[in-house]
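new request in #modeling-help
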Amino acid sequence: MAGPAAQPGDPAPAVPEDSTPAVPAGPASAARRAVPAWTAWLGTAVRLGLAVVWGWAGLAKIADPAEAAQAVRAYEILPEGLVKPVGYALPFLELALALLLVIGLGVRLVAGVSTLLLLTFIAGIASAWARGISIDCGCFGGGGHVDASQTEYLQEILRDTGFLLLAGWLLWRPRTKFSVDGWLAS
Amino acid sequence: MDVKAMSEKNREGKRTARERMLAQREADEAASRRRKKLIVGGSVLAVIAAAVATGVVVQNERSKPETPAAAPAGTVGDKNLVIPAGAANSPAVLTVYEDPRCPACGLFEREFSPTVDQLEDAGKIFTNYHIVSFIDRAVPGKGSKTGANALACAQDAGHFRDFHDVLYRNQPDETSDAFGNKAVLINLAKQVNGLDMPTFESCVNDNKYGGWVSSVQQDFDKSSYKSTPTVLLNGQPIYPKNGTEEITPANLVKWVDAANQGKQLGTPGSNGQTPAPTSTASETNNPSPNAG
């Protein structure tokens, strides 16, 4: 049975006096309120976890610029002119993401950049695998050519996919405890 | 207009005023949220851009030049990255890329160094060594770099071939970083007549040719060769196979002789190194007790 159908030409129902009048903000804030409190705590753990990943990856690549450049060169994707800038900048970019995640500033944006970066890494590893070249991903330092028997493409892709899940969670639920974002919103 | 209608209209007026006020407040809040978002987003992007720019500048500053500021005496090549052995006027050139820590290089050296030394002493080959140092990137330690520097120091002192052969006869396991210990390297130098000198010791201890070692490695990075040992005879890869033929000491001699056919041999002699052994038998690896 159909409910009471709205008659054509009926005026739009007036907003009841006791409800929040702003229509666009209404459902959004209701949804936000519906997020259980524990997700913010879980979000903090995810945020710090991803920060550790970026921090570790960045620090491992920073000591030897030539090594970092060679890790990039070994993918045989970028032209020689971009090998050094990318190899030199990448650890600093990773450390910047780690820092932003630790303080919790712009979490959704940082999670977005993290996602893009991880997708780039996964694509690079998959491409090396598909082209049959033998390299270490250089994800946490090292990198460059290795013996064909020592490649670990699947493990590297699965590991990065795990990190991708962390970034994806923060993209979906960027509100976390102990964050600059939270402090700015309050 | 009656009273009832009046109050009705009044109430409506009040409601619209309240709605307007609430809508205004809502719009203000939305604008403030947008502004905050822009500031936060802008700050995040600024931090990222600053990090990228800093990385390029700082790492460029920290990286060692591709052309070394100082190279060991007697090195050859356009950037002096190559250590030669044997007479330069020998008809064949043997090119060897090897890392002091690389186990396959140790196997190659212990099997072939007597033969290579003999071919050099007979004026048949001029060997060009590229002492690379990339095992340190994959295996914890710094023995590739300190070992390569010690080899550069030995070249400077005129004892490269002898010290090179001693190092590979005393090569630790790849996972052991014995060559990262400068005392071990200096101790091994005692097995080479005339090398155990204060200048050699200070050269090793001060990592005098560290920049040169990095340049040699960067040159290898940019080359098309991906592993060590890479061994070329007149530019042709011969390790582990020359075409379909497996490398052996006898085959190496055969290939060199074939390449040299009809050519004038170079000046014979050991060029200040210990003359090559008469046997072509493989040498054994005896990592010294303090190289374990």
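bot summary: Residues 149 and 172 of chain A are 39 Å apart (CA to CA).
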